[in-house]
Design brief:
The protein contains nine helices and eleven strands. With 291 residues, it is an alpha/beta fold. Helix 7 links the parallel strand 7 and strand 8. The longest helix is centred in the N-terminal third of the chain and has 30 residues.
Length: 291
Amino acid sequence: MLDHYLLDELVTFATAKTLAKTAATLHVTQPTITRGMQKLETELGVTLFDRQPNRIRLTATGQLAAQEAAQLLDQERAMVLRIQNYDRSLTTRPIETTLPGPLVLLDYLADQLPTNLAVNRTLLTPSQVGAHLTDHQAALIFSNQDLQTPTIESRLIGNENLTVHLQKFMYQANQATITFDELRGLSFVVLNAIGGWRDIIQARIPNAKFLYQPQRTAFTEITKYSDFPYFSTNLTPFDASALTPDDNDNRVAIPISDAAAHMPIYVSYLTAQRGALTDLIQQFSASWPVD
């Protein structure tokens, strides 16, 4: 069994290129690195380094050994993370999402949900969903992906439907529904953190301008004191921090009819956990707003 620290020294040297930089990176002395590399060569029974009077570099075998060592260390770190995450999952049920909308629902239901839920408010990328479930970083993940694999399955919770709020004197405001194309050329005030909706509105509304706001307070102030159109969804009424239209608001809310304005929301989980999560998933589904 090779010592972990020897592999770490080899991988570090492959990047640092010199003994001095390797020692500095690992916060040890240069003679310590020299002895470690000699010991590793002895244990492997191969020559890893081409030693010249004023230079040392990896041999071809040394380069292969460094690559294998890096993979082994990565696998070890991943193993430790999976074990730690699994142990945490026995007492805590982590929930993650790729979209901001489900966070609104979770906040709205906070007093009704089990106390062992731990919500991660940092949005995942869609490509992270499978790995985070497999590594037990999350028990449930909300996304707009219907994942079906031998170990992961998804269940539809409901649709998140997009609405636009237009100044009531605009000619487009005099209709029951509207299409993305009918919004062409307008300027919108939009929150930064809208997940997948950002790509949708940018791709679907021709020649539009989007005034993105990183903070809810700035978004609310601009919306309140201007006539810029803005968007909401059927989850917005659950959001305590959202702008609440009043009698002085000069806008009307118009649902967007395009299929892309109706985003299906799924929860994904490990199939082995289906039984333990069924009641929670049913609660999410029953609470999801229909309109």
